[in-house]
Amino acid sequence: MTTITRWSPLHDMTTLHNRLSALLQDFATPSTESDAPSTASFTPPVDIYEDAQKLVLKLEIPGVREENLDIRLENQTLTVRGERKFEKEEKEENFHRIERRFGTFVRSFTLPTTVDTEKVQASFDAGVLSIEVTKRAEAQPKQIKVSIGKQLEGKSAA
After folding, report:
1. Which of 20, 21, 89, 133 lies in disulfide reach of 115, CB 3.0 to 4.6 Å?
2. pTM higher than 0.90, yes or no?
3. In this structure, are residues 32 and 40 in contact, taking their beta carbons and an 8 Å threshold?
4. pLDDT digit string (tens) for 49-88?
């Protein structure tokens, strides 16, 4: 049985952009060999979705402790700062490979005006930070019932 796969050129461009950004950031971050694991910054991936009641952001930040997180909302801009520290239990020269990224990160998101900035909740579970921003009541979609065969008051049939 064959499967049809939808090809999206924008998805490929986004993936390429993210990879190039990460590569260029490695070259732009000055570091010495001895402190490279602790000073290299990283950009955690994020998923953003919304439904009728809320806007949800989920950031993958495994290894980041709650006390190393700073979440602020100011003028419709949500900013998440954090730091993942390199464990100094092992000597760096004993490592064969260090692929995980350590250091600080900052992600900022401009929120739509339809959200209620007073109703924000954050939770952290299994390395995923979830931030929920509730929409204002007037911004939520309203269901309008359609009456069949009835005329509106004050209107006559033409």
Report:
1. 133
2. no
3. no
4. 999 899 999 999 998 988 999 999 998 999 999 998 877 6
